[in-house]
Amino acid sequence: MTAQGLNRLEDAQLAARVAQDIPDGSYVNLGIGKPTHVSGYVPDGREVIYHSENGLLGVGPTPPEGAEDRELIDASKRFVTAAQGASYFEQSDSFAMMRGGHIDIAVLGAYQVAENGDLANWATLDDSFPPAVGGAMDLVVGVPSIFIMMRHVNRDGSPKLLKRCSYPLTGLGVVNRVYTDLAVLDVTKDGFRLVELTPGNSLDAVQAVTEARIHS
Amino acid sequence: MNKTAESLAAAVAPIPDGAALMIGGFGSSGIPFGLIDALLEQGATGLTVISNNAGAGETGIAKLLKAGRVAKVICSYPRTPGSIWFEARYEAGEIELEVVPQGTLAERIRTAGAGLGGFLTPTAYGTLLAKGKETRIIDGRGYVLEAPLHADFALIRAEGGDRWGNLHFHATARNFNPVMAMAAKHSIAEVRSLQDTPLDPETVVTPGIFVQTVVEYGERP
């Protein structure tokens, strides 16, 4: 089964949808890749402070070309600026912010999410590929709201929302909400619960490309 | 007291073959490129490198890997765009790799510097990276016992320093440099600007007690 024929949000639309749920005054960590685009869509009037685990609280916009400070980068190793009110700090302080529950929301990508909230986003089953974990395991144990932003199914049609993850876990029972191109789902004690469908999709059609049961 | 070395070569001269070496930096920021080049020239081999990443392109740690000087890498994120030399050595089975979650890496280093015997962290509980490690349940939550991570030498990068070894940093180039300075038996700091006058005590980030050698390297990457 593939997601063909279903209405899919484009990446930018998905980032904009996640951004709606970032409240004014939050401290937020955006994971490497697609989640970094969320900051561009937070509605005007909300002040959100972005944490970058390499030691910056208050990630500002990308600098104009030629004005980059080569020693001012974010966790994705992109050149950034420091926003008003920003601070720099060393690694153990940075991870104290993450593990210690001081960051409010993390938005991360995922290979797989299970209905019990287990997350797999750091290693696959391919042994020839050297593993790399970075700060993912620290974030998921310490940040109270873990939002996952990902495609609903893999490109080959295989499901990513599962009964149990088959890839090595990043954290156990840590995911709170999943935003996909097809739907938004909460992780509850009963499993995935539907928050909303991308307009034009039926629950039956989305369920058909989801291994785990979606409760309405 | 004067911890100043006359040259990068003099600063890295005491590093022997087989040393455990912490190297500061995250991505391309805060890496002691001058000290790494001097170490390559010096020739020490069979090194254990403790760093967040495992080098990219043809610079920094990648140079040590390319030259076959590294026996083991302990890091959180070895695979980055351009980490070709790490991947080549890893795929050829020429280096040992220990992957540690980034916060656990930082805290293991800090713990070593602070004289503690380890710590309990919820990070990695129930995952592959906690396999074989002692665990404990505290207030219903699972924790993993992690050991301190020591090193013989640390190569670190700072923005400014004085002859007492006091250091301050620039932007996100701070990253692992302060904790690594604490943890190694002998920490060598490459500073962009070595001041004749003492740093203002209010602006010192790494107190000189954690630094054994300071050397000026004016280039900023």
TrEMBL record, chain A:
SUPFAM superfamilies: NagB/RpiA/CoA transferase-like. The keyword Lipoprotein does not apply. One of its GO terms (molecular function) is CoA-transferase activity. Pfam families: CoA_trans. InterPro entries: 3-oxoacid_CoA-transf_B, CoA_trans_fam_I, NagB/RpiA_transferase-like. It comes from the Bacteria. Keywords: Transferase. The keyword Transferase applies. Gene3D superfamilies: Glutaconate Coenzyme A-transferase (3.40.1080.10). Belongs to the 3-oxoacid CoA-transferase subunit B family. NCBIfam families: pcaJ_scoB_fam (TIGR02428). This is 3-oxoacid CoA-transferase subunit B. It comes from Harenicola maris.
TrEMBL record, chain B:
One of its GO terms (molecular function) is CoA-transferase activity. InterPro entries: 3-oxoacid_CoA-transf_A, CoA_trans_fam_I, CoA_transf_BS, NagB/RpiA_transferase-like. Pfam families: CoA_trans. It comes from the Bacteria. Keywords: Transferase. Belongs to the 3-oxoacid CoA-transferase subunit A family. This is 3-oxoacid CoA-transferase subunit A. It comes from Harenicola maris.
